[in-house]
Amino acid sequence: MRCPFCKEDDDKVIDSRASSDGFAIRRRRECLACSRRFTTYERIEESPLRVIKKDGGREPFERRKILLGLIKACEKRPIPIALLEAITERIENRVLEEYDSEVPVSYIGELVMRELKDVDQVAYVRFASVYREFKDINEFMDELKGMLSGGRRAAVQAAVDRATGKGASGKGAGGKRKKAAAKKRDNAPSGKSAPNKGSGRR
Fold it and tell me: How far is it, in rounded angstroms, from Cα 153 to Cα 125?
């Protein structure tokens, strides 16, 4: 197997195990040239599944594209790559169960959004904003109305703010103004003169 990093065709298998569904063998390999490690999967060869794109065109189904989309949506988020690989595997299995020859790209996108919705709100907002191709912010917010309810409202709104770059600056400026106002109140004179200890009766 050619190394994806240095392109040398010299490696060894250091670990092999069956996937959770039993339909694939996961092999952990180490390149003998650059010592970096990578993962390969061995699966049963089946008739190729094709994806129906939004413009009606067709292209081969590739699980790697799902994983890359998840990684992009979860960039700089505290989500381990192992979790994204597990999500990719679940989506792939679901697609292969439901479709034999062709699958609409919209179906794959909905599966990805469903997974991200439960994993990370920021990643969900990022993926939704690209996948849905919203024309303006109002259309985007309409999509999130179903999520902006109950106890999840604050979390989703915060995710929207972080994804659109509004959260940090707005919150920081407001906090500074509140602290400055509180400090000014504390330092202001109370209006009452202190008692003169020397003016008491003798």
Answer: 13
Residue 184 Cα distances to 87, 143, 171, 178, angstroms: 52, 43, 20, 10
Distance CA 36, CA 3 (A): 8
Domain layout of the chain by residue ranges: 1-45, 47-168
Question: What whole-number distance in Å separates Cα of residue 56 and Cα of residue 71?
Answer: 26
Q: What contacts 117, CB < 8 A, 6 or more positions away? A: 124, 147
**Are the beta carbons of 59 and 50 closer than 8 angstroms?**
yes
pLDDT tens string 14-32:
999 988 777 789 999 999 9
- Per DSSP, helices labelled H in 12-152 are 63-73, 81-98, 105-119, 121-131, 137-144
pTM above 0.85, yes or no: no
Closest C-alpha among 76, 120, 152, 83 to residue 128: 120
In angstroms and rounded to an integer, the radius of gyration of the C-alpha atoms of the chain is 28
